[in-house]
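ugh ok fine here u go
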Amino acid sequence: MVPVPSPAFRTSTDADEGVGTTFETKRSFGVPGGLVYNAVSGTGVLVRDGHACPTGHGEIGAKTAVGADRAGRVLYLVVVDGKQPHYSEGLYMQELADLLPATIPGIYAAIVVDGGGSSTMAAQLPGGGTELLNSPINMYVVGWERAVANHLAVYAPPAP
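structure:
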């Protein structure tokens, strides 16, 4: 059984706080069988209950974070470029945790999902092409996207 606190992100410490519900972990390639349709793991909690969490500093560099509002209806995707002198050195983990609630009104929960050269954000353009929204770096080559085995993709239908 895995603890699942409310609203958007769940951590093992939430069970100790008595927050949330419990569900049985199941794997399936078919129709979702429970409350969780998609899940994303991360390496640390940045924001909980609308407040920055202590994270330690770690290394300065590129970071990727995913957050949500209290209702779990608004998704925030954040990428910070790094290791690019005269452009962006990146952030320490605590700097990112402090920055999110200070600059995104309504963010209630957030986790860090990745960092380094795989921190890349792109969007599909209305005409069908794609646009790179940040400046990734791979093997010290600015603008070169790192090949990764997985990614988070979000599809939203066009507004009426």
